[in-house]
Design brief:
Pfam families: HTH_18 (PF12833)
CATH architecture of the largest domain: Sandwich
Number of domains: 2
Structural class: alpha+beta
Keywords: DNA-binding, Transcription, Transcription regulation
Radius of gyration: 20 Å
Protein name: AraC-like DNA-binding protein
Order of helices and strands: EEEEEEEHHEHHHHHHHHH
Shape: globular
CATH class of the largest domain: Mainly Beta
Number of strands: 8
Strand content: 15-25%
InterPro entries: Homeodomain-like_sf, HTH_AraC, HTH_AraC-typ_CS, Tscrpt_reg_AraC-type_HTH
GO molecular function, one term: DNA-binding transcription factor activity
């Protein structure tokens, strides 16, 4: 089954499409900047010979350098949202935020390092996509609210998120551009692994294997790119999640177990170090 519905399209090339699929294997077109978001199910992408398994709550981005195909083979319907944003709108946002010429322009439209997978929980664009996904069926049937203003909001998030990625990428000092791209992709995929599995029992050895690097090389690269160690990043993810659990009235003892701490005092100390208050006194 394959169902595609164009909800909005204009002469500049701005377009949003909703899809509902169980089985397909096809070439995928990327425009000046394109987003492929999985609302439910799993989509298997091959983007410039990089295999990216994209699950519910994740999305991939690419530009015209992207050669892509997707395979979907599911017993249940896989819902997705595809968004193309015109170069004109993104350029307007770039010119407003960066009065002087910026290398981010070339990064957005001409570099294949742009091609990455993200979790909606970790980005500005992800927040907008998540809201779209939550209203998937309502918007699919009643989409008059989508207009050009929507694409400016998308473009603002694209510029914010990709500027962050671009700054991280520039921190890799390598004589060859291709080497820098390769190392960045490996390390970023390991970061995605942490994002997906931070509640599991994962350690530096597992993270480094995910990145296909030695432990020392992985730790060094991760700190160079993201400004923190993998272990500190993992701890930060867990503590941030504990904050959400507290807001939902989950007990401190249950949270200790959920986020993988051995005992409540250890969790309480880590929480207080990060947030300045113990979990028992958090309001």
């Amino acid at each position: 089954m394959l169902s595609n519905k164009v909800l909005f399209s204009d002469k500049l090339g701005n377009e949003i499409r909703f899809s509902s699929v169980t089985h397909t294997e096809q070439e995928v077109k990327f425009q000046n900047f394109s987003v492929k978001y999985v609302v439910s199910g799993i989509e298997n992408y091959n983007l410039n010979n990089r295999k990216l398994i994209t699950k519910k709550g994740e999305y991939v981005v690419g530009n015209k350098t992207t050669e892509a195909n997707v395979i979907i083979d599911s017993k249940t319907t896989v819902n997705g949202i595809c968004i193309d944003v015109s170069k004109e709108i993104i350029t307007e946002v770039l010119d407003f935020k960066f009065p002087n010429p910026t290398p981010l322009y070339n990064f957005l439209f001409n570099e294949d390092i742009l091609i990455q997978k993200y979790n909606v929980l970790n980005t500005c664009l992800g927040d907008l996509l998540s809201k779209l996904g939550n209203d998937f069926y309502d918007i699919k049937d009643n989409y008059k609210s989508i207009n050009t203003d929507f694409f400016y909001s998308i473009a603002e998030c694209i510029v914010e998120d990709q500027n962050y990625t671009h700054q991280n990428f520039k921190r890799i000092k390598s004589a060859k551009q291709e080497t820098s791209k390769h190392l960045f992709n490996l390390t970023n995929e390991a970061k995605n692994y942490i994002d997906d599995n931070f509640l599991e029992k994962i350690n530096i050895d597992k993270m480094a294997k995910e990145a296909k690097l030695s432990e020392y090389h992985f730790i060094r690269l991760f700190k160079t790119i993201f400004g923190t160690t993998p272990y500190k990043y993992l701890t930060q993810k867990r503590l941030n999640y504990s904050l959400e659990l507290l807001k939902n009235q989950i007990s401190v003892s249950d949270i200790t177990h959920i986020i993988g701490y051995t005992d409540t005092p250890a969790f309480s100390n880590a929480f207080k170090q990060k947030f300045g208050v113990s979990p028992n006194n958090f309001k």
